[in-house]
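Collaboration report, partner site 2.

Our partner group contributed sequences for two proteins of shared interest, and the home lab folded both. The records are reproduced in the order in which they were received, starting with the first partner submission.
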Amino acid sequence: GMAVFVDGAVVGDVVKAELTKLKKNYAFGRLTEIVEPSANRGEPACNYSKECGGCSLQSMSYESQLQLKKKMIEDKLVRLGGIGNPVVHDTIGMESPWRYRNKAQFPVGENAIGFYKAKSHQVVNCDQCLIQSEPAEKLAMALKEYMRTDHISAYDEETGKGLIRHLIVKTAFGTGEVMAILVINGKGLPNGEKLVLMMDDAINELVPNPETGVEFSLESVIVNINKKKTSEIMGDECITLAGKPNILEQAGKLSFEISPKSFYQVNPVQMIELYDKALEYAGLTGKETVVDLYCGVGTIGLYCASQAKKVIGIESIKSAVLDANRNAVINGIVNAEFICGRVEEELPKLLEEGVKADVIILDPPRSGCDPVLLEAVVTAGPE
């Protein structure tokens, strides 16, 4: 009757496991043998699945992954939320769950660009990642070649020495525009023009997307300076090395500017599915005031604007609020405004000013919603 968490086992497997940690109500174990494989098992498509800590469910078929995600939500609502028999609908999956990420964050190690090994900061060298965009892969290979030929050092977390810390690639699937961000532990990049040309050549080798016909083009190369001895990926200062400071993305009928530090949903295909579902549940008639909390660059709020009377977004990151207001202007949306501040402070202020929030959208960070905010949401009494 005790839950035992075993890395490498999947739901339905009968396994032998050696217990490594024992708690009062659960335990951890190390897989020693698969006695009877589960019907849910699938063959990992990725060559690095055993080393890389990225895609932890690759040993399961995609259908089983979707079922597991539904069960995880149910379990959390029951165990942590204390809700009996919660209504959780089936997880809406993708037609093709590959090459969907529009943002790649590659840590850079000695002779390695890839992703971290599970539960460590050891970089696994990955020449291919099947969930990242192809431009991201190409730019990683170009950076690796540049570092090899020009003897450029990788950052070492233990000593705090070395230059290149991370490569971040943002790909706008709707327009084909690509941004490369080089996070460095220094003032500048030696022979940076050479790297820009290598990256440009790498992107030009790609063929247009066969489904959409969109051609990829390198539109922005940014240097981000992070000299802090910290696990934070990006520093505060961004310098445009080549091209534009932002790239443009097209989602449905809307256009969005994406800056180096702005948050944007990483799966653009499922983003549309998600927002359409939110709109369906909101049941807007054109008379409602929609309040979008933790609004980021305004994507959800702006998506709702054509069907609402007014949209008000609240976000604590100043650059994101500037992006949101600019995105409203780009799309000619005049019934949306975005406020910079902590949501738990700004929402009560709006209510005091007499704003009636008919619909409230919550897209909080991983840490979740502040209890003060949830109280304010209840006080607002949205439909």
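Second partner submission, folded after the first:
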Amino acid sequence: DPGHGGPDPGAIGIGGIRETDVVLDVSKKVKDLLAEKGIKVRLTRNKEIDLDLPPRVSFANRTDADIFVSIHANASRGKRRDINGLETFYYSGWRGRLLAKKIQKQIIRVSPGSPDRGVRQGRYFVIRNTRMPAVLVEIGFLTGKLDARRLEKSIHRKRIAYAIAKGIIEYLSKAG
């Protein structure tokens, strides 16, 4: 689930970098990597369209997905450049927590120096209302000096996508 889209660009970071662009690019790369491994992936959106939260949840529940992964990029209040880091949220259950831990471990690995903000419980609509294990991944702060510089580079977005895909594959091989 690439967060935001269309008229909702999400966070706007240093130099005008937009969350919607970053997360759509990363999500498409994750899809391709998983598809190469024979895993069927459905994106809630694959272009710049306006997609509200309830339709995202309905789509996931209707497709009877095994897992739901919502990909986002963070912004700090007041656009503080000193705040950076990656974090993964789950709503409840050991499966959601395990999926979050697997993904978090991998994204930290490809983001040396970026703070590990950890795996935490969250009450985000999309992870609270889906019927399968669900996580919301924050792949860095678009307002943070370190993270924004990385996220604007295609090579780093590829690394993040690879890390998310690897975490998903590890989860699917263990939780199955």
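Feedback sent to the partner group on the second submission included the following. The chain has a mean pLDDT of 96. The longest strand covers residues 134-141.
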